[in-house]
Specification:
- 77% of the residues lie in helices and 2% in strands.
- It is built from 20 helices and four strands.
- A two-stranded antiparallel ribbon has the order 1-2. Strands 3-4 form a two-stranded antiparallel ribbon.
- A hairpin with a 2-residue loop joins β3 and β4.
- α4 runs antiparallel to α5 and α18 runs antiparallel to α19.
- The two termini are 37 Å apart.
């Protein structure tokens, strides 16, 4: 009984979200759509409480090692819960403005957060799979949330079908690993890999990596990303680009570094290859894009390539670099999507790059914010994007992968073209229409401005507390 009590105490964040999410679901079922705003507010409160519980809760393992609460999991959970809360704030106003307000929207995000939290705390292959599927099922529904929109329905269907394929790859890899190691637990797998190095485990690991790469939109498993980003509702895409990416990167780090640290020389080659392909696809694929959300899809592909460089290093500095990069990247992405949600003309959202022409006249503050965010994404010092790349390139170079880092720099230069094109259109192109942009929704406007202010100049101050936090999170992982 004591063990069960301890396990429940350790998993308090997940229990809080799961029970709270079900209560909110019942509340919505009995009160109807009129309670949507109330449920959104309570969902944000629920995620804030879960963040506090994760931050101040005890550390340890539970459920026979299937659940791990360590500094890495704590950092990941706080970032996931706060990102999910921001996504609800952005989405609540949007669904009401578009007349599709349903109480299920915030509840689905809360339930997805339970799965993402499980991913961050996975200690074996079973909890890994449960966490992935729990959050994926909610995200499939969210992608098709605007069911009267054909593109949204198509996005949900594509995401579901390709997600099922990736789950098959992941399960096949997990079954091979279990067959050779005789255990599901990462600790036992690591012990077996140390005593019995062989190609069987590596073969299973490659399939596992392929399944996980799909979840982070890493090339060549990125095929769903541009279509889903283009078709899904903008606030839903803002969620896709942030919290699930953090959860998946924490999970990839835990699986590779903790479970297969002894085989670093083998899996690092696979991760480096995925990074290089992501650089190529993300940088060159984005050059011809005209839709901003589709452009951000290719931007996410190249940025995941950068984050994977830190994982490939296989060191504590590499894990820290990945966490630092993902934190700064998520804030940057929320800024981009908040700007999109704040811009419309005659009630129609601005989605094309060409539609940004003349923005300096109508919305000079938004133009400045989007300029800062774009320069940050390019990696111009001393903005937040520069510091994220500085950490991952440094970790890769220290681990001997300086050629991969150099390839990342080249890809960054190529990708700089489409970010600079956004700036050029805003500030130098004449508007094709005299119709002014609509008044910006308050929540989107302030999140956009806050994200831009963080990217520069607040990031310079933020690094003084982010750096020790990410270092402490990385120190809890079994790295050499």
């Amino acid at each position: 009984m004591t063990d069960l009590s301890s396990a429940l105490h350790l998993s308090a964040p997940e229990l809080t979200l799961a029970v709270g999410g079900l209560v909110l679901l019942m509340l919505g079922a009995f009160t109807g759509e009129k309670s949507t705003r109330l449920i959104s507010g309570l969902s944000i409160l629920l995620l804030a409480v879960a963040s506090v519980l994760a931050a101040v809760g005890p550390l340890g393992t539970a459920f026979n090692g299937a659940y791990v609460a360590d500094p890495l999991a704590v950092y990941g959970k706080v970032a996931i819960f706060l990102s999910a809360a921001v996504a609800i704030v952005l989405g609540d106003g949007w669904i009401h403005r578009n007349g599709i307000a349903k109480f299920e929207y915030p509840v689905l995000i809360v339930l997805a957060s339970v799965g993402m939290s499980m991913m961050a705390s996975s200690g074996d292959l079973i909890s890994l799979y449960i966490g992935i599927e729990m959050h994926s099922l909610a995200l499939y529904v969210l992608a098709a949330y605007h069911r009267d929109n054909l593109k949204a329905s198509e996005a949900g269907l594509k995401y579901f079908v390709l997600g099922a394929l990736s789950s098959g790859l992941l399960l096949y890899g997990a079954s091979l690993i279990y067959g050779f190691a005789g255990s599901m637990r990462f600790v036992d797998i690591a012990a077996f890999a140390t005593a019995n190095p062989g190609p069987g485990l590596i073969f299973g690991l490659v399939f596992l990596i392929c399944g996980l790469a799909f979840k982070v939109s890493a090339a060549p498993f990125h095929m769903w990303t541009p279509d889903v980003y283009e078709g899904a509702p903008t606030p839903v895409v803002a969620l896709f680009a942030t919290a699930p990416k953090i959860a998946a990167m924490v999970l990839i780090t835990r699986v590779l570094v903790e479970g297969f640290g002894v085989a670093h020389g083998q899996w690092a080659q696979v991760i480096i290859l995925i990074s290089l392909i992501s650089f190529a696809v993300g940088s060159f694929g984005g050059l011809m894009q005209k839709d901003i959300q589709r452009l951000l899809a290719y931007s996410s592909i190249i940025n995941i390539g950068y984050a994977l460089l830190g994982v490939a290093a296989g060191t504590e500095a590499g894990v820290q670099a990945t966490l630092m990069f993902m934190t700064l990247y998520v804030i940057d992405q929320f800024g981009f999507f908040a700007v999109l949600l704040s811009l419309s003309r005659s009630g129609r959202p601005i989605r094309k790059i060409a539609d940004l022409a003349g923005l300096k006249r109508d919305r000079p503050l938004m133009a400045v914010a989007l300029t800062i965010l774009s320069l940050s994404a390019v990696g111009i010092p001393p903005m937040s994007g520069f510091w994220g790349k500085f950490f991952v390139f440094g970790a890769a170079a220290d681990a001997g992968y300086w050629m991969a880092g150099a390839a990342g720099l080249v890809a960054s230069v190529v990708a700089g073209f489409y970010y600079l094109r956004i700036i050029k259109v805003m500030w130098f192109d004449a508007a094709e229409t005299e119709v002014a942009t609509d008044k910006s929704p308050l929540e989107a406007k302030w999140i956009a401005l806050a994200a831009a202010a963080f990217c520069f100049p607040l990031v310079i101050v933020a690094l003084t507390w982010l750096e020790p936090l990410t270092r402490a999170a990385a120190s809890g992982v079994g790295v050499g």
